[in-house]
Amino acid sequence: KQEVTQIPAALSVPEGENLVLNCSFTDSAIYNLQWFRQDPGKGLTSLLLIQSSQREQTSGRLNASLDKSSGRSTLYIAASQPGDSATYLCAVRPSNTGKLIFGQGTTLQVKP
Amino acid sequence: NAGVMQNPRHLVRRRGQEARLRCSPMKGHSHVYWYRQLPEEGLKFMVYLQKENIIDESGMPKERFSAEFPKEGPSILRIQQVVRGDSAAYFCASSPSDSPGGYTFGSGTRLTVV
Q1: B53-57, long-range: CB within 8 Å, 24+ apart, which pairs?
Q2: In the prediction, which pLDDT does A42 show?
Q3: For the CA atoms of chain A, what is the radius of gyration?
Q4: Average pLDDT for runs of 10 along chain B of length 114
Q5: Which of B52, B44, B58 is nearest to B93 (CA)?
Q6: Which residues of A touch B95 (CB under 8 A)?
Q7: N or C: which end of chain B has fewer CB within 10 A?
C-alpha cells in the first residue's frame, strides 16, 4: 500500500532563506509525483509535475527533484518570500491507478 | 478556459438532510476525481469517474455517499442523511485522459453540517 510522508510538518524561516521540503513514498511504482500549494481555506494550485522518467522540474524559484529508487522527492524554494507562506502538498500517482495519494503537507511560514 | 468549477463554495446542511456538490471539469477533460479533506487531516481520494462510468470508488464510504458523471452536465457528489462527521472540504479534480498527466483541482466546496 502506497504511503506518502512529508517532513517537516511545519517550518518557519526568515525572508530570503533557501529551503527544502521533503516527501517520501513507500512504493516506487508510480506514474508521476506532483507538488501543490494550498492557501488557508482555498483550493490546490499545482506547482510542479514530475513524470516517473524525469529527475527534476523547475519553475521560477521552485525546483523539484525525484529519486524513484529511494522513494524521495524534494521541493527547493529559493530566496523565500512572505507570499510563499502556505501549505505544500506532495502527491504521488501510483502506476495503474487514476488516484493521487497525498502526504499530510508541510505548513510554511516565511517571516518578513 | 475557466478551470475546474465547483459549486457551491460553501454549503450548510442540517443533520439528516441531503448535500449535492457539483463539479464541472476543465474543457476537454473527461476524467473527474473527488477528494475529501477533513479538518486537520490530509486529502483522501474518494472516487474516479469518466462520463457515465465509475472507474474506482475504493475511497467512498459504503453508505450514504454516491457519485455520478452523466453524459451531459457536471459531476455530482451526493451525500444523503448528512452527519456532523461529513463536515469537510470536498475537492474535485479533472484530467484530459488516463494518461499520466497532471491534475487540475477546483476551489472546493466546504460542507458544514449543523
Answers
A1: B55/A98, B55/B31, B56/A97, B56/A98, B56/A99
A2: 87
A3: 13
A4: 88 98 92 92 93 93 95 95 96 80 88 97
A5: B44
A6: 98
A7: N
